[in-house]
Amino acid sequence: MSYTYIIIDDDPQSILKTQAIAERFRNLSFVGAAQNYEDGLNIILEHQPNLVFLEIDPSNPSSNLSVALINELYRYLKVVPKIIVITKEKILAYEALQHEVIDYLLKPLSINDFRKAILKLERNNPVINNAQTSFEITTIPKPFEVTEEQIELNPIIISNLIEQEEEINDDEVIDGEKILVASNVKEIVISESEEYEEPLQEITMEQKEVHKKPQTLIICIKSYGDYRYIDSTDILYFEADNNSTDIHLNNGEMITAFKTLKHFENVLPKNQFLRIHNSYIINIEQVSRIHTGNTVCYIKNSATKLPFSKSYKENVDLIISLIAAGNYLEI
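^ that's the sequence the OP posted. Answer follows.
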């Protein structure tokens, strides 16, 4: 059984760190996140996850995050999700236990405390008690994999661990065109159960290799029954053109989609594409050089260089961190 979960925290970096740790547990499946009381309530009611990580001591009081959100859930749901509260103050965590939360996590988060909370969740749920190793940390490598120590020291680089995109089906039609973005298919985990006579280790090496192969994001541009599929790894960058966006490919082709650049910024995975300018979103994997003095990014195997603006300097710093977190040697 896979547990779907939602993170509610007013701090975006804390959301990223919580998700990065959760991604190391193969039976936890990310649904979404929210940064305030109202959005948190709505996303829980919409998706009705199995588990919610809830910050109850927000740094921004206007977010209104507290255990009051738990009480509100009982007004609408017959089955309230399991709640794990997150806070810096242990006394608040103890108070939260009176609201029937299953556990608490103190900031800064520790992988050991996180594992204990998940094991407690498993123990209290008889449906999956027969799966003793269901929450073991996966050893399948991830792109730009970082260590727990790196996560503690530099939380900005953890966003590369996050597969944020759910399957998106945007039915909005603009000038006869609509965009469908299909997210990466997550790893399929086959577990042994009483219904199967053959043990798990009988899976062939070929089957294991298939499961390990990462699947790239496919972007589909649909127009009047014409489906145009684009492999995200073939995209160099997106360029704004009024209310449309030009998609530049590594074969020199350019495709126009009748969606704004802002739309693509919202739906594209942040560990692969980042906005660096009001007019550009760049594919991180296609960056060959970043010159901070001249404020430009260079594209691999081409003479193309894209400017980045001060308002997106933080994203450029994130690109530098993501590249450095991979198989990297700095001289």
